[in-house]
Amino acid sequence: MIDHLHNPNDAIGKTMEGFFRKTYSPPKTTDRDTSLGQASKEMERQQLKLLQINRRMRSIGAYQEEHRQKIDFFAYIKKKYPLIEFEEHNLHNYNFDEVKRIIASRIEAARMLQAAIKIQRSYRYNTQRKREYREWLRKDTAARMIQKNYKASVWVRVMNRLSRKRKEAMARRVQQFLRGHLAWKQAMQMKRDAHLRDNFAFFEGIREQFLIDAQIKIRWAWRLKQRRKTIRLQKKREAEEAKNARLYGRAKKKPKR
User: Fold this and answer.
1) What is the pLDDT of residues 155-180, one digit of tens each?
2) Which of 49, 112, 146, 206 is the most buried (most CB within 10 A)?
3) Domain boundaries, the chain
4) Closest by Cα among 109, 57, 55 to 81
5) Residue 191 belongs to what H/E stretch?
6) Backbone angles phi, psi at 138, to 5 degrees
C-alpha cells in the first residue's frame, strides 16, 4: 500500500523532517559567508522546494479525492450490482474514468447476462408450463372419459336393475293372479265335484227328465212336420184334380171328411 494515501500526515511530517535535516547546519567557530547573494539563493532554493511540496500536496489531495470518489463509486456499484467482479485493490491501477469505463462495460455484460438468464428462465418456465399443461390436459381428458364411461355404466346398471325389478314385480303380480285364478278354479272344480257327488240322484233325475222332454219335443216336431207335409200334398193333389176336371168336364166329388 501507498503510505501517503492512507497516512498523509505522517508522510508530510517525514518529508518536512527530511527537508529540515538537510538544510540544518550546526554553528561553527569559523566565519560564515553571510552575503546577500547566498541568502537570496538559499531563499529561492527553499521556495522551489516549497513549491514542489505544495505541488506534491495538491497531487496527493487530488489523488485522495479521486481515490475517495473511486471508493464511493465502488461501494455504490457493489451495493447496486453485487455480481460485478471488480476487486478494491484494482482501484489503484486505473484512474477514475478508466474505472468508470471498466465498471460500465462489466455492468453492461452483467445486464446482458441477467437478460440472457431471464430469457432462458422464461423460456424454460414457458416450456415447462406447456409440458405440464399438456400432461394435465391428457390426465383431465382421461379422467373425464373414465368418469363419463363410469357414469354411463352406472346409469345402465341402474336402468337394468330398475327394469329387472319392474319385470320381476310384474312377473310376481302375474304369477300371483295366475295362482289365485288356478286356486279359485281348482276350488270351484272341487266344489262342483262335491256338489255333484252329493246331489247325483237329483241331477240324474233332472237329466232323465230333460231327455224325456227332449224326446217328446222331437216326436211332436216330427209329427207336426209330417202332418204339414201330408196336408200340403193333399192340397196339391186336389188342385191338380180340379184342374183336370175343368179341362175334361168331369168333376169329382170331394170326399167327406
Assistant:
1) 778 888 888 888 888 988 889 888 89
2) 49
3) 1-23+37-80, 97-185, 207-247
4) 109
5) helix 96-198
6) -65, -45
